[in-house]
Amino acid sequence: xxxxxxxxxxxxxxxxxxxxxNNQSTQQDILRGEANDRQKGGVWAVRDYHTTLEKRAIxxxxxxPGYFYMVIAATVMATAGLLLDSAAAVIGAMCVAPFMGPSxxxxxxxxxxxxxxxxxxxAKQLVGLLLIGVSVAALITAILDRNVSGITITHEILxxxxxxxxxxxxxxxxxxxAGAAASLALVAQPRIVETPWGQIMDAIIGVExxxxxxxxxxxIGIGLALGTPEHSRNALYLxxxxxxxxxxxxxxxxxxxxxxxxxxxxxxxxxxxxxVVTLDVVPGFIAFGxxxxxxxxxxxxxxxxxxxxxxxxxxxxxxxxxxxxxxxERETSCRSDVTxxxxxxxxxxxxxx
Length: 353
Description:
Glycerol uptake facilitator protein; single chain; GMP Synthetase, Chain A, domain 3; four-stranded mixed β-sheet; 12 helices; alpha/beta; 65% helix
């Protein structure tokens, strides 16, 4: 059945109303999740889940100055650790390496067929590793080689530049596991993705991802600076193998198996579009600050929570929630429970435009 509710909040009651609704929603989310465990082929009962994945992918593909600074810092630390033959220093460098974002952009971009995000994430990753990482490692090594004695190929470097079959297999397994962990953080407990605990998990998994990427990139630069191109060549092969295992096989397989699909992202977007069309006819509707949250409960069922900001004056139709649900069903063939929270606002514009 379709449930349509419409509520109004005024002044200082808005905060307490939302808090009560959030507490109730948490309990309802748990019950909905348990009730929909029998529905296979998707991630259900998580608010705006596929839209959140897309936003994360888009953010991961964006290039910022901070990304380059973090790559430089991580490469300098990794190069020093490799030349010192210190595994602890190499691992420490991974704590600041910013490769979680572009790795997810590549995987999710392919899954959602957003080729701009895919190419952006892939280019961001390769520029960070092969252009900045290799160049910084080569520069640091060349400077040290001219001014400090004892700069030579160490065991930590040989692991990445002259790997045995055992080391190649284990390195690939690490990359696969890191990619799988990055995706499991999104699908194993999807309700904590946007919580502080989810962010902590991302930081930890980001270290695992960097272990497969930054040291081989640094070894490429070290080999070039020390005149041992065979080390650079082998490290390049290892790096490319790790990128494929991490971005495509490890990460992608988990998301596909868990049921993350483009059609569910499209469904969330179509539901929002249908809601917006209906809201446009509300007197005094203010688009800025109004939100539409979609919680998919199955292939043809959804909960829609609307926060409608509007100016005082005029009357909100009592059948607004029903109209929204009917329009959603016409546009998407999806049944929906709709809740509309109406927030009247008083506004004044004193800044010339």
